[in-house]
Amino acid sequence: MNAKDTYRYHDMLEGCRQLASHYSFVTVYEIGRSVLGRPLVALRCGRGPRKIHMNASFHANEWITSALLMRFIGDLSASYASGEPLRGQEVAELCGEVTLWAVPMVNPDGVELAQCGVNRSNPWYEQLIAWNGGSTSFSDWKANARGVDLNDQFPAHWDEERKRRGIDGPGPRDYPGPKPLSEPEALAMARLTESIGFDAVMALHTQGREIYWNYRDYEPVEAEMLARRLGQASGYKPVKLSGSDAGYKDWFIQYFRKPGFTVEAGYGENPLPFQNFDNIYVELQPLLVEALRIGRHRPS
After folding, report:
1. What is the DSSP letter of 200?
2. pLDDT tens track for 109-155
3. For residue 203, how many other CB atoms are within 10 A of its CB?
4. Residue 178 backbone phi and psi in degrees, to 5
5. What's the Cα-to-Cα distance from 166 to each of 151, 160, 163, 174, rounded to whole Å?
6. Which domains does the chain have, with CATH numbers?
7. What residues are labeled active site?
8. From residue 178, how far is each of 3, 59, 107, 274 by CA, in Å?
9. 3-state secondary structure (DSSP) of residue 274
10. Deepest of 107, 148, 260, 284, by most Cβ within 10 A of its Cβ?
11. What is the tens place of the pLDDT at every residue in 198-217?
């Protein structure tokens, strides 16, 4: 990872292949397909009854989160296999209690656009350039291949988010789509979440070194305390957020009334330079370990 300045879809797939081939601890599943037909991959790690979910790259230009999550799964797997503790945690013991379900790249089409631009073989070539204001540079692109912001796609006061955004058509960011879950990537995430029944979820974004833990007072009573634990582990600031709807963690909190978090990793201007990867990961790794402990001491 450190010798490169990008982390692309094929890097993620190769990482999944290597993890699954080296560690029986890791199982790879296809949970759907992107707009352009790329398989959406989930990794299952552990065997415990508590189910924790983490995802990355809902937003295309936040692709560094995919590399961060894959590094964590690699560290978790290596610690499990070797018996060496991870941040003082015996991983075999922890993963006898918890199963991690990770989707390391929710938006592969957008990630490829953000890093490589648009190829003439893309069926939306002309439209994408038009949606991008005529520019062939897509480094600031957040949306999927149809110009829809996947983190504005969930049925949690979606219509209010649509009105607040005030964007009526596809573009680089903030277009919620024609209706909730219109995009195959968002629909795949919703179906996975409903089918597994996660006890808590965490969506990795960039940037700001903040943790968002609430949604319209639907969150469980322990959510703020858990956010403080995550903040103490990482140095990130727990923030009670308002004026935002239709995100993945918003929907999870509203519909399941369980802990959900958005973590804004790193600090700077998106896309964060890959040279910052190691510094971001040093802060993020203990937060992710702590997230796997959620549910161990829930209040009665």
Report:
1. E
2. 999 999 999 999 999 999 999 999 999 999 999 999 999 999 999 99
3. 27
4. -75, -20
5. 16, 10, 5, 9
6. 9-110+182-292 (3.40.630.10)
7. 264
8. 41, 18, 18, 34
9. helix
10. 107
11. 999 999 999 999 999 999 99
